[in-house]
Every structure is written in C-alpha cells, then in structure tokens.
Amino acid sequence: MPIELTKQAIDLGIVMLDGDAALKFYRDTLGFEHEGDIPHPLGGTMHRLWCGDSLIKIMVPEEEPAGRAAAGGIPAATGYRYWTISVSNIEKLVTACKEGGYTVRVEPTEIRPGVTIAMVEDPEGNWVELLKNEA
Fold first, then answer.
1. What span, in angstroms and rounded, lies between the C-alpha atoms of 118 and 92?
2. pLDDT, tens only, 72-99
3. How many CA atoms does the CB half-sphere of 133 hold within 13 Å?
4. For the whole model, what pTM was predicted?
5. Residue 25 has pLDDT above 90, yes or no
6. Rounded to 5 degrees, what are φ and ψ at 70?
7. How many helices (H) and strands (E) does the chain have?
C-alpha cells in the first residue's frame, strides 16, 4: 500500500542533553525558526524549530538517558547517522559553523557536477549534511 502523506515534509526528533547549546547551533547558527517549547509527556522539554516545511524537535529529557548513540557519524555505526538540508548558501553556513566552534567533518565538496555537500556536527556530535544543488 503506498503512503498517503498529509504533509510534504518530515518531522525529525533529536534527543540532546543541552538544550541551550542545541538552540545556539540550530536556531542561531543555522537559522532555524524557533516556534517555541513545550513539555514532553515522557519528561523534559521539546524545542520546536522549523527548517523550511520540516519540524525539527529537539528533545531534552529531564533525566540523562542510560545509553548514547555511537559517535563518529557515517563510518561509526548503522542506523540513523545523518540528515540532509538543501541550501543555497553552503559556504556561508560552513563558515558560520567554524566561527561558532563547531566541527566540520566534510568541507564543501563537489560530489558530482553542480552538487556540493558539506557535513557539520551539532554540539553533541550529530551529523548534519548541507547540500547545494545547482544541477
């Protein structure tokens, strides 16, 4: 049975321990629109940020989770390892990440004619791919 979408974007939940650091990265550095914060029924706070039509939900639990995802992005483990944002200003975003003290794992690199990617880490080591498509 094919999927019947009610929204042409996704909502992505990211569990992070430091909500202030998450907001500094996603809101202040990458420029996501902060809709607001709500309490989560599992305990903690959800920071709701918009990236285009996609809702990015930064979940900060009241108690630190017992486990953590493997660090190291793509080569470290299977499972959800990164997500991609299509942008027109990749160079400016990479510069802003560097100036903010964030790790750039892949400098802007043309992977095929007209398509450039870069990969940056948020404050807790989650990888975000920036993609510029001029093809």
1. 11
2. 888 898 988 999 999 999 999 999 999 9
3. 6
4. 0.93
5. yes
6. -65, 130
7. 2, 8
How many other C-beta atoms lie within 10 A of the C-beta of residue 40? Answer: 15
Angle at 85 between CA 79 and CA 90, to 5 degrees: 125
Q: Give a three-class secondary structure readout of 93-120.
A: HHHHHHHCCCCEEEEEEEEECCEEEEEE
Which one of 3.50.50.60, 3.10.180.10, 3.40.1280.10, 3.40.640.10 gives the CATH number of domain 8-64?
3.10.180.10
Query: Residues 110-125: pLDDT tens digits?
Result: 999 999 999 999 999 9
Running DSSP on this structure, what letter comes out for residue 27?
I
Burial state string for 82-111 with b = 16 or more CB within 10 A and e = fewer than 16: eeebebeebeebbebbeeeebebbbebeee
Query: Quick check: do 8-64 and 80-135 share a fold?
Result: yes
Are 52 and 9 in contact, with CB atoms under 8 Å apart? yes
How many other CB atoms sit within 10 Å of the CB of residue 72?
Answer: 13
Token couple for 135: 């093809």
Q: Classify domain 80-135 by CATH architecture.
A: Roll (3.10)
